[in-house]
């Protein structure tokens, strides 16, 4: 290979047109292997297994997520976005437990005819988010595959027995709170599909969602959160899991949920903005049930840490296992899996 | 569904002809969720992430391995064998560190048109090996995929700073030892391909290899092992990694490697039995470099634990970075990646 065929992109020097198949398994994985020392990582890529030294007094939190070409992305989807999104889903799961993300493992199936920069861009996408949270690659496996398939396993730490679960004891009058954009991801997808101008924030929320890792840590430290999960499948699913399955119902307030921008997108695409909110998902916000008396503590904690309380009280826990939305006009709407029932 | 359509296989009651698509993601994963309490597993399948409580004084050992239809197995391969083999590869990686396997996570891409018992049989195959080593399912992700793809992440524990690596300080006169069948897997594949009768042990070694988890623990406890790895890519690759890369060479003894059964299979299939040994791999035995003075301790440990020393001294470390085989007729053969050089 001649020297002029080499170039430098994002800190790496690599050979132009280098194919995956030119590298072999070991060459390939060694190229992704970060050489710097990472605290707690005793042995990274290159041995039979990775060795990690967990701090004492902490539990481990582990999540795994798989993405596949043709289902979650297309053959020509920007590989950076594939990596970014995959890491976001995993970080969001860790955030939803109130935990600290730490190490990730990649299993990657890839066509050996792909250029090496395709893989490198997946990795750059993964790392662009991971490194923001001091989270590092610790191992992986790569195989040949016609379609790209990516499975990430992420390991984090949480103070012993402090992980925030979905299942738990809640009470009537508890507050239902939300942190992050709500319904923006689904709306952003419609903006892209319908080529509408002027909704950059929603498009950004769809393309590059942000995991609420810091907020998750603050929610855990506030000690007033009873149950929590991330909004990856829509708000209905979250309320179902956190409230209904724990034996109560939810009264939600539209005035806290309503968003003019969402409504405008809904109108332009002949939809109901509530669909984005309740069935959209992929927002990766956090939904939590919080002790009513503790809510002020929570906003204080959040404001001190993020210079912005960011948290919205979207409803409260009620007796009776149903989800009711109090509309802007003070009428009520029952939210069901199959749709809405006006009454 | 009528009652007579139900049947009971391997302890499960399930509906005949039930498709993956009939279950949905949650129904599907809940069916695999073992309901019994597992020590150290605080939260299993069903939340955003699993929570594990690691014992103090231990490091974590983590490995991940991906298998794909079309590459590692065929569309009609027995799903039990797919699960079994995948678990074996992961357990073997943990064994190669001298660690204790503990929890596994599945990422599974599967065609929703498949019958549910296909997945259940993958899971039964995984568990048939995992449960032998007190290793339990702790989480997973399932997606739709035309081709079956399976990624397993396995987490184990090892006494702090005691994990046995590939890279390390070795010395001339150290012994090179092997535990497990050597070359049997590759030979077994030839037996199947060529439909030869009478080599059940080799066929078994190919179809249902056994991970050397117990031996790995004993090797660690003996404290005389310098470096170790598992034989998943053939003996040449192991010696390359454990000896050559650590700055020495290896003198191997054919009289310790030669096996009449392998030789018979080689003859029947017009091959050299040394190919099975050096380039076969997939045997999942353990290769280790051991202090010469400590070897007796090691055999004592192994005999006490397994009622069989099982360990073979196949060679010794020499100066000079090459691999030499002392043949049965006392001639020498240099083993190279590209082949053999007689001298």
UniProtKB/TrEMBL annotation, chains A, B:
Gene: thiL
A single BP term in Gene Ontology: thiamine diphosphate biosynthetic process
Other information: Reaction mechanism of ThiL seems to utilize a direct, inline transfer of the gamma-phosphate of ATP to TMP rather than a phosphorylated enzyme intermediate.
Residues that span the membrane, as ranges: none
Entry binding sites for Mg(2+) 5: 233
Enzyme class: transferase
Record-listed Mg(2+) 3 binding positions: 48, 93, 230
Binding-site residues for ATP, renumbered to this chain: 123, 140-141, 166, 232
SUPFAM superfamilies: PurM C-terminal domain-like, PurM N-terminal domain-like
Protein name: Thiamine-monophosphate kinase
Keyword Magnesium set for record: yes
Binding site residues for substrate: 72, 282, 340
Residue ranges of every copy of the PurM-like C-terminal domain listed in the record: 174-325
């Amino acid at each position: 290979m001649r020297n002029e065929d080499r170039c430098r992109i994002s800190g790496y020097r690599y050979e132009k047109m280098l194919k995956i198949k030119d590298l072999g398994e070991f060459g390939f994985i060694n190229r992704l292997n970060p050489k710097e020392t990472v605290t707690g990582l005793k042995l990274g890529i290159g041995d039979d297994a990775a060795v990690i030294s967990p701090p004492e007094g902490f539990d481990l939190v582990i999540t795994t997520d798989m993405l596949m070409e043709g289902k979650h992305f297309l053959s020509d989807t920007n590989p950076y976005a594939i990596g970014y999104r995959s890491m976001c889903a995993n970080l969001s799961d860790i955030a939803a437990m109130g935990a600290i993300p730490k190490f990730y493992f990649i299993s990657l199936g890839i066509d050996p005819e792909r250029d090496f920069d395709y893989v490198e861009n997946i990795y750059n996408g993964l790392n662009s988010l991971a490194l923001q949270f001091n989270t590092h690659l610790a191992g992986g496996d790569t195989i040949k595959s016609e379609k790209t398939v990516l499975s990430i396993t992420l390991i984090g730490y949480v103070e012993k027995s402090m992980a925030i679960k979905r299942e738990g004891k809640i009470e009537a009058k508890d507050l239902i709170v939300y942190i992050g954009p709500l319904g923006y991801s689904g709306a952003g997808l419609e903006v892209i599909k319908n080529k509408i101008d002027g909704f950059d924030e929603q498009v950004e929320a769809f393309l590059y969602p942000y995991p609420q890792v810091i907020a998750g840590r603050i929610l855990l430290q506030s000690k007033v959160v009873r149950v929590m999960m991330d909004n990856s499948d829509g708000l209905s699913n979250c309320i179902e899991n956190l409230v209904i399955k724990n034996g109560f119902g939810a009264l939600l307030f539209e005035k806290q949920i309503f968003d003019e921008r969402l409504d405008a997108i809904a109108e332009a695409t002949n939809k109901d903005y509530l669909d984005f909110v309740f069935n959209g998902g992929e927002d990766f916000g956090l939904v939590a049930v919080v002790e009513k008396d503790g809510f002020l503590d929570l906003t204080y904690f959040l404001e001190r840490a993020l210079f912005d309380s960011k948290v919205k009280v979207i409803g409260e826990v009620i007796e009776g296992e149903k989800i009711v939305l109090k509309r802007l006009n003070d009428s009520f709407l029952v939210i069901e899996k199959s749709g809405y029932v006006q009454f």
